[in-house]
Specification:
Length: 175
């Protein structure tokens, strides 16, 4: 009798363990996600122009740097231009970047020319909220600044124009 009970108990345990491991093969859980798109001034990475007509928000509220925005067609050959004040960058700047998230992030700036140039350079000099220089980004090197929640960093733009088109793309990577 004990052998029959033991055998029956082993059989039940074996069947239940097989059924337990094959309880289901797939599943799906749906959750709501809210993702709003905001302009550069109010997004997670806030980008706002300084006091210059050459840096502005376009109709889509995206930050633009455009030296032909005014009545000129561009910059002079063999010239240099600075947008902002390197000695007081937290007061006079080309644009600022604001961490509108609730945790600290590192913002890395990269600039790439649209085409090969025969010379010239574009530099994005990064300053912290006190106006102290932190780093510089240019086509040959990236620069970064770390901002805590709500903190603002400032950017001064320098151009060294030879006789080439310095147009390009600024990329800000957050991590």
């Amino acid at each position: 009798m004990n052998k029959k009970i033991a055998f029956l108990l082993i059989a039940v345990i074996s069947v239940s363990s097989v059924a337990g491991t094959a309880a289901f093969t797939s599943g799906q859980v749906d959750r709501q996600a809210t993702v709003q798109v905001a302009g550069d001034d109010a997004a997670l990475t806030g980008l706002a122009p300084g006091a210059t007509d050459l840096v502005y928000h376009d109709a889509s509220n995206e930050l633009q740097i455009d030296f032909s925005q005014v009545t000129a067609s561009g910059v002079n050959a063999n010239s240099t231009y600075t947008l902002g004040d390197k000695s007081a960058a937290n007061e006079t700047y080309a644009f600022n970047v604001t961490n509108n998230y609730n945790t600290q992030y590192k913002y890395t700036f990269d600039y790439a020319f649209d085409q090969n140039t025969n010379g010239g350079n574009v530099s994005f000099i990064l300053y912290d909220n006190t106006g102290a220089k932190v780093d510089t980004a240019s086509p040959n090197s990236s620069g970064s600044i770390t901002l805590t929640s709500g903190e603002v960093g400032y950017v001064v733009v320098e151009l060294d124009a030879v006789d080439a088109d310095l147009s390009g793309k600024l990329t800000v990577t957050i991590n």
